[in-house]
Amino acid sequence: MAGGELTRRWAVAGVGIPLGVGIIYLGGWVLAGVVAGLAALGAHELFRLARAGGGEPFPWLGVPAAALLVVAAAASPDFATAAVWAWTLLVVLTLLGLGGGVWFRGSEGDPLDAAGATLLGSVYVGGTLSFAVL
Fold first, then answer.
1. Can you say how many angstroms the Cα of residue 69 is from the centroid of all Cα atoms in its chain?
2. What are phi and psi of 91, to 5 degrees?
3. Per-residue pLDDT tens over the stretch 91-119
């Protein structure tokens, strides 16, 4: 059984490594699209982990925000312009998260926890991966 697992790993590496190098070589919007997809998947996974720990984030708000942080970095490849777009997105995300926390969770449903987990997931994953594009 161990040989079959090793063969599978070599096959994934044989396809994945050249594909990853090719995407990095192409750069631009191809790289941004792949990294934005990875940011969305990563944020979704972080929200799933938060839910398993008892939190209730808003994935419908945080997953697109994580991907949009990467797209903002790709749209303006210098740091100063990308930072303006990122801060604008984060302010809107914070206000929507806090408003959604009060509206959907009520005062007894930990609205600050929901908004904080949503903001953390978006910034931690999308903000970090946006530097791959910059």
1. 8
2. -65, -45
3. 988 888 888 888 887 777 778 888 888 88
Q: What is the mean pLDDT of residues 45-59?
A: 89
Q: Residue 88 CB: number of other CB atoms within 10 A?
A: 11
CA atoms of 9 and 20, how far apart (whole Å)? 16
The SS3 of residue 124 is helix
Instruction: Name the region of 59 (left: φ>0; alpha: ψ -120 to 50; beta: rest).
Output: alpha
Which among 4, 22, 43 is positioned nearest to 122, based on CA atoms? 43
pTM of the prediction?
0.81
* CA angle, residues 116, 118, 121, in degrees to nearest 5: 105
